[in-house]
Amino acid sequence: MKCDKRCEEKDLLLYAVTDRSWLNGRTLYSQVEEAIKGGATFIQLREKELNEDAFLEEAKEIKELCARYHVPFVINDNVEIALAMDADGVHVGQSDMEALDVRAKLGPDKIIGVSAQTVEQALLAQKHGADYLGVGAVFTTGSKADADDVSHETLKAICDAVDIPVIAIGGIGIHNVMELAGSGICGVAVISAIFAQPDIQEATKVLKEETQKMVKA
């Protein structure tokens, strides 16, 4: 698979998606920094509850943190926030803005990720300018109640069909990441496998090592 200059496959190896439901008294900033220190290669800020002003302020802080560690930083769904605080890009789902429209808003230099569950969705996202695809849920997940399961056969078919990098998402952890070997993905996106763990830095480090083995297998 090829990847253009906006994002590289190595950046997508261990893609951490934030979730403030696991904060337990800590700040999201400190959790993200722990994940990056542990080896997270990409950060997506996912906020469903914060108002726009708080979201924007938080996004600016996390962007500064990611820039300091040279880790790509994208916003989940909210194209306006991504535009307002100059994020590295945005990740959109099938029910959000079309990749073509996102590209028109953000310009040619930003990273655009798109969620896909079928080969048809994947090919359309690629045609419309997506830089990478997030495919899932590949395992049962508690993080997204409406996530449809994607079989490993479909995951492989999507990887075979497109020229842009594909990451798997949904229920992935240290216990099952090796099951994705041979699918063609270049990395995994996780939430609880990092942010729900008591030692985020160590959990990230161990998961990254297993993910590297999986990708090479």
From TrEMBL:
One Gene Ontology cellular component annotation held by this UniProt entry: cytoplasm
Annotated signal sequence range: none
Annotated EC: 2.5.1.3
Residues annotated as domain Thiamine phosphate synthase/TenI: 14-194
Residues reported in the UniProt entry to bind 2-[(2R,5Z)-2-carboxy-4-methylthiazol-5(2H)-ylidene]ethyl phosphate: T141, G142, S143, G171, I191, S192
Top enzyme class: transferase
Single annotated GO MF: magnesium ion binding
The reaction(s) this protein catalyses: 2-[(2R,5Z)-2-carboxy-4-methylthiazol-5(2H)-ylidene]ethyl phosphate + 4-amino-2-methyl-5-(diphosphooxymethyl)pyrimidine + 2 H(+) = thiamine phosphate + CO2 + diphosphate; 2-(2-carboxy-4-methylthiazol-5-yl)ethyl phosphate + 4-amino-2-methyl-5-(diphosphooxymethyl)pyrimidine + 2 H(+) = thiamine phosphate + CO2 + diphosphate; 4-methyl-5-(2-phosphooxyethyl)-thiazole + 4-amino-2-methyl-5-(diphosphooxymethyl)pyrimidine + H(+) = thiamine phosphate + diphosphate
Similarity comment: Belongs to the thiamine-phosphate synthase family.
A Gene Ontology BP annotation from the UniProt entry: thiamine biosynthetic process
Cofactor note: Binds 1 Mg(2+) ion per subunit.
Functional note: Condenses 4-methyl-5-(beta-hydroxyethyl)thiazole monophosphate (THZ-P) and 2-methyl-4-amino-5-hydroxymethyl pyrimidine pyrophosphate (HMP-PP) to form thiamine monophosphate (TMP).
InterPro entries in the cross-refs: Aldolase_TIM (IPR013785), ThiamineP_synth_sf (IPR036206), ThiamineP_synth_TenI (IPR022998), TMP_synthase (IPR034291)
Pfam families: TMP-TENI
Residue numbers binding 4-amino-2-methyl-5-(diphosphooxymethyl)pyrimidine: Q44, L45, R46, E47, K48, N76, S115, K144
Protein name in UniProt: Thiamine-phosphate synthase
Keywords, alphabetical: Magnesium, Metal-binding, Thiamine biosynthesis, Transferase
HAMAP family, alphabetized: TMP_synthase
Ligand binding (Mg(2+)): D77, D96
Listed pathway(s): Cofactor biosynthesis; thiamine diphosphate biosynthesis; thiamine phosphate from 4-amino-2-methyl-5-diphosphomethylpyrimidine and 4-methyl-5-(2-phosphoethyl)-thiazole: step 1/1
Cofactor requirements of the protein: Mg(2+)
Source superkingdom: Bacteria
